[in-house]
Amino acid sequence: MSTLAPLSYVKVSSIRMQGLLLLFFSKMEHVPFIRDIQATYTRTGIFGYWGNKGGVSIRLSFYGHMLCFLNCHLAAHMKYATERVDEFEYIMDTQMFNCTKAPRIIDHRLVFWFGDLNFRIQDHGMHFVRSCINNQTYSLLWSQDQLTMMKKKEQLLQEFEEGPLDFKPTYKFDLNSDTYDSSGKKRKPAWTDRILWRSEDVSTQEPTVAEQREEDEEFPLKIKQDLYTSKMEYSISDHKPVIGIFSLELRKMYEIPLVRLRAEGDWSADIDAMVVYSPLQPFPSSSWDWIGLYMVGFTSMSDYITYTWVKDDEVAFNEELMQVYVSKEEIPVRGGECVLCYYSSALQCIIGISEPFKVSIKEIIVSLKSSAPSRKPSNIT
The Inositol polyphosphate-related phosphatase domain covers which part of the protein (predicted)? Predict the structure, then answer.
């Protein structure tokens, strides 16, 4: 968060299940257009009760397009390729969201599936695998990659795309080194860490979803992978991290935020302040909605300086403009560049961000009183 905030990225959502963590960041300019955020998890560890294996997901609406991000940690060891597929299908079947348009992962227009999927390189011996790695002839190993092999017979896997594995297998390394496992077990290198995606193909949709197909055709979404590689310089794990960069080309279903807000007048800790906001589109307002004051460069929605409940401190200016007061006791004494964010409790997201404005430094008056005898000017003759 401290690294990404200066680059104008804000943490929008996160979910954790033991060691499995998913963080979703967005550029500030997109935040008011990311809505309907939900997160969930599925355990597939020992008897389905332990969370060391399974999947965590975050789904959302991005300019009206339904996206889902699924991070999985599947069963380990060479012989459990079928179990890994079973776990993935179980996660896909059981994760449900409170969303009419996309209640399941598979209903989203774009799904990213990634994580430590634990698929191994089968059949090839250790000497051949390491020789291919040293010679960078990775393509000779692809046919025996278990995920590639399972895709040939599993319909669900065939719906997911993946870029070419033109980088070293990312597992397993000695800690703090670029050396593959030199322990007594000498595990065979493998591409355990993967990034795949599934983009909804309008041409394959069922006739029963004609209305949805018309919407998809009117508001197209295209995806292109720009980079798929590993980062060998990181050595704190026995895995090397994998990076995927994608470009999305889409037509926005809406281009204005739900709320416009601004700081009215001068802001400082010397006087009570006022926020003026106006709804630009209908949205489910709630007594739990609040407006937060943030420093420019804030890291997440919880990184506010102060907040005020909209309904508690609201005064109607007219039917289109609302005023909300902020107590001077809540305004930072040191001042600085700030923004205001309107948070919708019903939508679980920020739906409006003000332009940056200056909060003045609080005036401090210091009175000095001397105990020394006063000196009068000398008489001049």
Answer: 1-254
* Pair 194, 229: CB distance under 8 Å: no
Is residue 225 situated within a structural domain?
Answer: yes
- Specify whether 307 is located in the same domain as 330: yes
Domain that holds residue 134: 5-250
From CA 5, how far away is CA 175, in angstroms rounded? 30
**Which of 198, 216, 250 finishes a domain?**
250
Q: Do residue 239 and residue 306 come from a single domain?
A: no
- Indicate the SS3 state at residue 82: helix
150 and 87 together in one domain: yes
Q: Which of 193, 198, 128 is nearest to 167 (CA)?
A: 193
* 201 lies in some domain: yes
In a domain, 375, yes or no: no
What CATH number corresponds to the domain at position 333? 2.60.40.2840
Residue 365: inside a domain = no
Residues 135 and 41 in one domain: yes
One digit per residue, the tens of pLDDT, for the chain of length 381 reads: 999 999 999 999 999 999 999 999 999 999 999 999 999 999 998 866 677 899 999 999 999 999 999 999 999 999 999 999 999 999 999 999 999 999 999 999 999 999 999 999 999 999 999 999 999 999 999 999 999 999 999 999 999 999 999 999 999 999 999 999 999 999 999 999 999 999 986 444 554 455 666 777 899 999 999 999 999 999 999 999 999 999 999 999 999 999 999 999 999 999 999 999 999 999 999 999 999 999 999 999 999 999 999 988 777 666 688 999 999 999 988 889 999 999 999 888 999 999 999 999 876 555 555 444 443 333 333
45 Cβ contact list (under 8 Å, min separation 6): 51, 52, 53, 54
> Are 105 and 188 contained in the same domain?
yes
Counting Cα atoms < 13 Å in the Cβ hemisphere of 213 gives 10
Residue spans of beta strands (DSSP E) within the chain: 9-17, 20-27, 34-43, 54-62, 65-73, 110-116, 193-199, 221-230, 242-250, 259-264, 267-268, 273-279, 290-295, 306-309, 314-316, 322-326, 336-344, 349-353, 357-360
